[in-house]
Amino acid sequence: MKLLKSLLILVPALVLTACTSTPEECDPTRDPGFFNKMGCVFSGSYSERVEQKKVEIEQLRQEQKEVLEAYQALESNRSKMIADRAERYRQLDKLDNDIAKVRASLAKKNALTKEYQQKLDKLQKASNEARNLDDAGSLEKSQKLQEVQDSTNELLEAFAQ
User: Fold this and answer.
1) What is the residue range of 59's domain?
2) What does the pLDDT read at residue 128?
3) How far apart are CA 96 and CA 9, in angstroms?
4) Do the beta carbons of residue 88 and residue 141 sit within 8 Å?
5) For the chain, give me the number of helices (H) and strands (E)?
6) Which of 11-20, 37-46, 49-58, 126-135 has the lowest mean pLDDT?
């Protein structure tokens, strides 16, 4: 009889403990105690916590995937920018060579007047400025390079006449 009375008192206490257990209280990294563990098992809080952690892991995997894709896109863009920069330097080197050839040709023909000397110096300065545009955007660099090329072509046409 005494056992029956004890069970009648103990069973409702266990049921009430199970009802009050939340998934946050059912953290397996800390020891909540025997009755709290029983409450976590009977209330389904352990299962709920496992499902929450699975969702968190899936969200973290998705975030990792997005970060990896962004990194790959940046790396691809970086490669393109490096190739673009190398091409611009090649074009600038060609312009510098053209300017030097014109200067040498004019000097050989004794036609290197002060006016042509100033124009060549101005082109050389513009070429050097275009080479030093590391902080500028790619579009600005391309525009500056195109301006220098146009000026060089105009000067070469003027010398040809």
Assistant:
1) 44-160
2) 76
3) 98
4) yes
5) 5, 0
6) 11-20
Q: How far apart, in whole angstroms, are the C-alpha atoms of residue 42 and residue 5?
A: 22
Which pLDDT does position 139 carry in this prediction?
Answer: 66
Residue 132 lies in a domain: yes
Alpha carbons 45 and 118: distance in angstroms, whole number = 84
Q: Has residue 17 got a pLDDT over 60?
A: no
**Encoded tokens for 112:** 């290197």
H helices present in the chain, as ranges? 2-20, 34-43, 45-108, 114-131, 138-160
Distance CA 40, CA 48 (A): 10
Instruction: Determine whether 143 is exposed, middle or buried from the number of CB atoms within 10 Å of its CB (0-12, 13-18, 19+).
Output: middle
